[in-house]
């Protein structure tokens, strides 16, 4: 097991009167893609938002790259090298694809300052971004918006990507494109924590997996082991993969 880049120890999160996370213990190994799975309402999105500082942990510790980030502000956490792609994608519909990309790049004030080689690499992953470079992002299809959201997260090198349900509502051809893009991302020494409902998507990409239920991690291990054990899938996720090919 490679060392953990991100570690959550006994993390609790309250949102108003609601106690959502009940002592989450999670390790995300450096350089791997970790899948965070679980039924709806298990606490997966809350976990990502708590890591990002959008919601404060009420108890427990979150460490990233050896630093305690539990009480840090969201901009500080982003500055440390974490990018977050929320489920609603967080793109600016009135702005062009180009403007969206520029806004996401902290080190560039003008388009000429973007790393051209990196931009070409992103265009290779998502050709639609080049094609619609000057189009308003709001006019893109759902799949293209998702590609833009991921492109924005990787416009500069990041140590860790937090991505919430990237395949949700996408057509199979777009999902296949996403899978190949994430495979390529995995080769670049980027660590990824990915929340996903689509088990087929998860098993093709995940190195390690953590399963949540009711605000806790109830299973951790290799993705391959879970993918091969239908009994365990049914127990943890209430699904039989036979129905999800």
From TrEMBL:
One of its GO terms (biological process) is L-amino acid transport. Keywords: Amino-acid transport, ATP-binding, Cell membrane, Membrane, Nucleotide-binding, Transport. Residues 6-239 form the ABC transporter domain. It comes from the Bacteria. GO terms for molecular function: ATP binding; ATP hydrolysis activity; branched-chain amino acid transmembrane transporter activity. Pfam families: ABC_tran. The keyword Cell membrane applies. The keyword Ribosomal protein does not apply. Belongs to the ABC transporter superfamily. PANTHER family: ABC TRANSPORTER ATP-BINDING PROTEIN, HIGH-AFFINITY BRANCHED-CHAIN AMINO ACID TRANSPORT ATP-BINDING PROTEIN LIVF. This is ABC transporter ATP-binding protein. The lineage of its organism: Bacteria, Pseudomonadati, Pseudomonadota, Betaproteobacteria, Burkholderiales.
């Amino acid at each position: 097991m490679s060392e953990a880049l991100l570690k959550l120890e006994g993390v609790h999160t309250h949102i108003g009167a609601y106690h959502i996370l009940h002592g989450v213990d999670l390790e995300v190994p450096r350089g791997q893609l970790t899948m965070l799975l679980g039924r709806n309402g298990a606490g997966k999105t809350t976990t990502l938002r708590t890591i990002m500082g959008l919601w404060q942990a009420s108890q427990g510790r979150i460490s990233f790259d050896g630093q305690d980030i539990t009480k840090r502000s969201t901009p500080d956490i982003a500055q440390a090298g974490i990018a977050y792609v929320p489920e609603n994608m967080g793109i600016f519909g009135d702005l062009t694809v180009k403007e969206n990309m520029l806004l996401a790049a902290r080190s560039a004030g003008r388009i000429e300052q973007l790393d051209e080689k990196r931009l070409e690499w992103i265009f290779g992953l998502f050709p639609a971004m080049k094609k619609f470079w000057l189009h308003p992002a709001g006019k893109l299809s759902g799949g293209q918006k998702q590609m833009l959201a991921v492109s924005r997260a990787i416009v500069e090198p990041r140590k860790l990507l937090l991505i919430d349900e990237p395949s949700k509502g996408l057509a199979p051809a777009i999902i296949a494109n996403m899978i190949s893009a994430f495979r390529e991302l995995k080769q670049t020494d980027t660590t990824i924590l990915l929340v996903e409902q689509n088990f087929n998507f998860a098993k093709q990409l995940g190195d390690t997996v953590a399963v949540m239920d009711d605000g806790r991690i109830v299973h951790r291990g290799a993705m391959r082991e879970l993918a091969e054990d239908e009994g365990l899938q049914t127990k943890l996720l209430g699904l039989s993969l036979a129905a999800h090919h």
